[in-house]
Predict the structure.
Amino acid sequence: SAARLLRAVEGGEVPAGCGSAVLLDRAAAAALHRIGFTGEDADGTR
């Protein structure tokens, strides 16, 4: 659930398979148009 994810991230934990998490307030989320990721995929490819 979203509440469980928020508690985990606020406590410094992220779900298995996640390298990071970003928490945004509503104003920041509303202003966000795109998130880009670079680097290797889980299988080592780009």
